[in-house]
Amino acid sequence: MAVTIKSEREIELMREAGRLLAIVHKEMEEAIRPGISTKEIDTLGESVIRKLGCVPNFKNYHGYPASVCVSVNDEVVHGIPSSIRFLEEGDIVSLDAGLIYKGYHSDAARTHGVGQINPLAQKLIQVTRESFFAGIKMAKAGNHLHDISNAIDAYIKPYGYGIVRDLVGHGIGTSLHEDPEIPNFAQRRRGLKLRPGMTLAVEPMVNMGYPEVEWMDDDWTVVTEDGSWSAHYENTILITDGEPEILTLYEPGEIR
Fold first, then answer.
1. Cis peptide before 119, with omega less than 30 degrees from 0?
2. Would you say residue 126 has pLDDT above 60?
3. Measured by CB atoms within 10 angstroms of the end CB, which terminus of the chain is less buried, N or C?
């Protein structure tokens, strides 16, 4: 396993890639409403990415046909945007996007409610997000990779949700997917020791029902096997000498 340690220059480029992606996500979030098509969201996301002087790293990645993965309700990840798929009041939608800034990648995902949503769906979104923050409390130099996995699992387990096992987080840098893989469920082995300069994409994917998923005929869209709804939350993070740094969080004032 070859896990890259970023130099100070590389870290600065990763920070900027993350900051810009946070702006993209904020713009997309503000556009979500009943009646918008998933393709319109993708078009907006790509437009903002390019306006910021970056390249969408998902587009044509292994043949993926869009810049933003737009996954609705029981779609876990990799939903392909469509001009005839419209969001409806009460839906939940996961937006997964990334960009390349001067050769360096960022990757982040958010799940949003469309209009007024069911309290059970809101709880799923909330717990998925909170599990990420529980996990990265362990993302400190000297700890081990699977301390993150175990903390995410421990946070989610009391709610009875299914943690997706077929898809995991990953390292990130000059490539979108680098070593190591980062499971969101408990591991017996400790995994590699975390070191300053590692950049990781940590991304819990949580189903309201069972953890099993399946791939649709388009070979991209992953859905829950039992039809239950699913939420996704992801950030690109940096391991430091102290607390982990979240590179893809939006700070007010960055858009205007």
1. no
2. yes
3. C
Mean pLDDT taken over the chain: 96
What is the number of domains present in the chain?
A: 1
Assess if residue 109 is contained within a domain.
Answer: yes
Collapsed DSSP state (helix, strand, coil) of residue 54: coil
Quote the CA–CA distance of 124 and 140 in Å, as a whole number.
Answer: 27
As a whole number of angstroms, the distance between CA 70 and CA 52 comes to: 21
Domain membership flag for residue 254:
no
Q: Is 78 exposed, middle or buried (0-12, 13-18, 19+ CB in 10 A)?
A: buried
pLDDT score at 250: 87
Tell me how far CA of residue 156 lies from CA of 68, 140, 205, in angstroms: 26, 21, 11
Length of the chain: 256
> Residue 211: left if φ>0, alpha if ψ -120 to 50, beta else—which one?
alpha
Q: What's the pLDDT at 252?
A: 54
Q: Which domain CATH number covers 42?
A: 3.90.230.10
Residue 79 amino acid letter:
G
**135 within some domain:** yes
Question: Residue 133 to residues 24, 79, 80, 162: CA-CA distances in angstroms?
Answer: 21, 25, 28, 18
Which residues constitute the domain of residue 106? 8-246
* Alpha-carbon gap, residue 45 to 29, rounded angstroms: 10
Burial of 228 (0-12, 13-18, 19+ CB in 10 A): middle
- Report residue 255's pLDDT band, with 50, 70 and 90 as the boundaries: very low
* One-character DSSP codes across 194-220: P-TT-EEEE--EEESS-S-EEE-TTSS
Residue type, 242: G
